[in-house]
Every structure is written in C-alpha cells, then in structure tokens.
Design a protein that fits this description.
The protein is an alpha/beta fold and about 400 residues long. Helix content is about 35%, strand content about 30%. The strands form 3 sheets. An 8-stranded mixed β-sheet has the order 3-6-2-1-9-11-12-10, with helices on both faces. A 6-stranded antiparallel β-sheet has the order 14-15-13-16-18-17. Helix 1 (about 15-35) crosses helix 3 (about 65-85), helix 2 (about 45-55) runs antiparallel to helix 3 and helix 8 (about 275-285) runs antiparallel to helix 9. It is globular. The mean pLDDT is about 95. It binds adenosine-5'-diphosphate (ADP), aspartic acid and magnesium ion. Aspartic acid binds near residues 9, 10, 41 and 153.
Length: about 400
C-alpha cells in the first residue's frame, strides 16, 4: 500500500482555523491513500519570535540553547494538529524529532540528518494512525536537541520520505507552486508545472525560500519527486523532478535580501593568504558566497565577499583575528546588501545573457557591487533597497510574464 509524506509549512498552521483546515485535508488523504505521515512546521511567526526573545536576553546566545528554544515551536503544531485530527475522529499520534530518532550531527542551528529510526512510525501506521512528526528538529549523537536551519521542515519531510520509501512527498505551502519569481513581488509571475532538481537547487540556494536547499539536494540524490502545492486550494502545483521544462534561456528570477558584505582592506598579495582567510571562516561553519579581489597595488589588495546576514555576528570576531594575523589594514562590513539572480539550465547555450542582465539593471540605474556566474545562473549583489525594482525588471526583460 502506498505511503504519502505531506509537509505543511508555518503559514498553513498559523492559527486554529488553519490547523483545522489542514486536519481536514489530511483526513481526506488518509481516506484515499491509507498511510499518511505528516511533517509540520511551527505556527507562522513562532520561530522568529522565539529567536528574538533569545536576543532580548543576550547578543550571543549559545547555539545549543537556541536549538533547545526553537524546537519548542514545532511541538506546538504537532500536538494541536493531532488534537484536530482526533476531533474529526481520525486516529493520529504526534512525535518530536528526538522521539523518532532523527539523528543528526552536532552542528547546532544547521545540523545535518544522519539517519532516522522508522520503527515507531511504522508501528503506529500499522495501527491505522496518521503519524505527525515535528519538522526542523533532531537529536545529536550527544543526545542534544538540534535544528536543521531555517526552513528545515522541508528537509525533515524529504528525509522521512526516503527512509519510509514513500510513494510521494508533498510540500504544502501558501503559494500554488514554484513560480518564475516570488509571486509576492512579481504579480505577473508564472507558475511552473515542472522544474528540474538543478534549477530548483539554484533557486533555493539563491534565496527562494519556498523549499530549503538541503531538501532539494536530498530529493535529487535519492530521486524523490517533490510536489510543491498550496494548502489553501486544490490547484495542481509544481513537480520538482529530474527533467524540468527545458525552457530556452532564463527560467526564473530570484533574490536574497539577507546578505552581508565584508571587506578586508590592504591584504598582502601573496600565496596562501586567501586560503588562510577562507579556512578560518569555514571552520566557523559559515558559507562564503561571492568573492572579489581588487587589482594588486604595491603588493596589497582589497578582498570583499558576501555571507548570509545572519552569520555576520558570528563571522566578524573570526575575521578580525585573521586580519590581524595576516597583517591586513582592517575590516569593514555592511548589511543592506541583496543578491538578485537569474537562473535557467537553458542559459548554457544562450550567449549574451549576462550582458542583457547588466544592461537591464543599468537602465534602472541600479549599481552592481559584485557579480558571480555559473553555467546556469548569474547573480549580482546590489543595494537592498533596489531589490523589488530589479526583480520586476529582470522578470520583464527575460519575457517571463504570464
Ligand atoms: P512555508 O511556511 O510553507 O514553509 P515559506 O515561507 O518557507 O513557506 O516559503 C513560501 C514562500 O516562498 C512564498 O510565500 C513565496 O513568497 C516565497 N517564494 C520565493 N520565491 C518563490 C518562487 N520562485 N516560487 C514560489 N514561492 C516563492
Ligand atoms: N519553523 C522553522 C523556521 O521557521 C522551520 C520551518 O518552517 O521549516 O525556519
Ligand atoms: Mg519554509
């Protein structure tokens, strides 16, 4: 008998009425498919609120305690959703991540799943229950509660679908699928019927938070078809699979506002320096994104790079240490930087795409601070206040409107 994994995001369970709506949808699926495992996020806004309450206490909360705190959010929705199912007469049981042994590494706040013990889930399914699992959380080898990074419930859902050999994995959210741009910014954005793993990987890594990057990586590796659709309608949504639409040229525009730019000034220009800087940052478990180095002047260069804005507080002390060690002049950092990107596997065979992107931004008088390209994407760092204008005009420039 097929087994379905469904994941409902925070906005889908934001209040009692919405939780009841989700319970009704689950019951319908249960009647049709029989075996249903549901992953659920914390009620919308809860994780943000918990995080800010940590920062009200201290500017540098311990990451172990942050995980301890954030994991409580999902516990609210699993219990309420299970109660809602009970009140519809549907047998159901909730579990936290640790209860079903979602074993992770020890990287608090961005842990990776190592394994899941499905024994308890299977036993409850056998009894005819819907099993509701808390997204975003697990337990480390040290028996500490961990979380999987923002948006991590998507990854819990895919990992469960793999471990349980589910027939499908459905991601229910507040939009009707994957669009050519964030539909909240571009009202003319088009819903895509299909998108390839590779394109979705680029969109997610470039800021489209509709599916967490890790969840798409996992889905690709284990060939799980991901179906992204709306909690609030019955529209068909978007399938993320091996093959996308193979659209010629650009297939989507995306943005990421949460960026910080760091510049190390007057860096000695000799072998081993870049390695020393970026190894130090990697040791802190921080991803560096775009990098640019100015031309060498009297043996000195300026080195600028971007990281996630949320990593800035953690990165700066480490960067200051390395700046001193390599005898660079100093460090400056700024938030308020955003990245806009165009994505598409079809871009490979279309020359001149980059030039068109730059001219489009120039026409809008938007200054490009940094550029990075790959075969299937081009990204530009720009001032955060120009994001809406940039996304809208690039979407128009590449003919992506409905
Ligand atoms: P959930 O709470 O269900 O996990 P998220 O807020 O994490 O939902 O992700 C859904 C949001 O992703 C949408 O509300 C939308 O604004 C945003 N988004 C950004 N880019 C895209 C895109 N290309 N297609 C669809 N949604 C997108
Ligand atoms: N509640 C977590 C977050 O807000 C996880 C998730 O929603 O997927 O990031
Ligand atoms: Mg999400």
């Amino acid at each position: 008998m097929p087994l379905i994994v469904q994941k409902y995001g925070g906005s889908s369970v934001a209040d009692a009425k919405k939780i009841k709506n989700v319970a009704r949808r689950i019951l319908k699926t249960k009647k049709r498919e029989n075996r249903v495992v549901v992953v659920v996020s914390a009620p919308g806004g809860t994780t943000d609120r918990l995080l800010s309450s940590a920062y009200e206490i201290t500017a540098h909360p311990s990451e172990r305690e942050v995980d301890m705190l954030l994991a409580t959010g999902e516990q609210i929705s699993i219990s309420l959703l299970t109660m809602a199912l009970h009140s519809l007469g549907c047998p159901a049981i909730s579990f936290t991540g640790p209860q079903v042994r979602i074993l992770t590494d020890m990287a608090h706040t961005k842990a990776r799943i190592l394994s899941i013990d499905t024994k308890r889930i299977k036993a409850e399914l056998k009894k005819g229950k819907v099993v509701i699992v808390a997204g975003f959380q697990g337990i480390s080898q040290e028996e500490d509660i961990t979380t999987l990074g923002r948006g991590g419930s998507d990854t819990t859902a895919v990992a469960l679908a793999i471990s349980l050999k589910a027939a499908s994995c459905e991601i229910y959210t507040d939009v009707e699928g994957i669009y050519t741009a964030d539909p909240r910014i571009v009202s003319f954005a088009k819903r895509l019927k299909k998108i390839s793993y590779d394109e979705m990987l680029e969109l997610s890594s470039l800021g489209a938070k509709v599916t967490q990057l890790r969840s798409v990586e996992l889905a690709k590796r284990y060939n799980v078809r991901l179906h992204v659709r709306s909690t609030f309608s019955n529209k068909e949504g978007t399938m993320i699979t091996e093959k996308g639409l193979e659209a010629p040229g650009v297939s989507g525009v995306t943005y990421d506002k949460d960026q910080a730019k760091i510049t190390i000034q007057s860096v000695p220009d000799r072998p081993g320096i870049a390695s020393a800087i970026f190894n130090k940052i990697a040791k802190e478990n921080i991803n560096v994104d775009m990098i640019i180095q100015s031309a060498s002047l009297k043996g000195l260069t300026d080195l600028s790079f971007t990281i996630a804005g949320t990593d800035l507080k953690k990165a700066l002390p480490a960067i200051k240490v390395i700046t001193k060690r390599i005898k660079a002049k100093g460090v400056t950092s700024s938030k308020g930087v955003a990245k806009v990107s165009i994505v598409g596997v079809g871009m490979r065979s279309y020359p001149g795409v980059a030039a068109r992107m730059f001219s489009c931004l120039a026409k809008e008088r938007i200054n490009i601070e940094m550029i990075s390209t790959s075969e299937i994407k081009i990204s530009c760092a720009i001032d955060e206040k120009n994001v809406r204008k940039a996304v809208k005009s690039l979407h128009r420039e590449f003919g992506l409107e409905k």
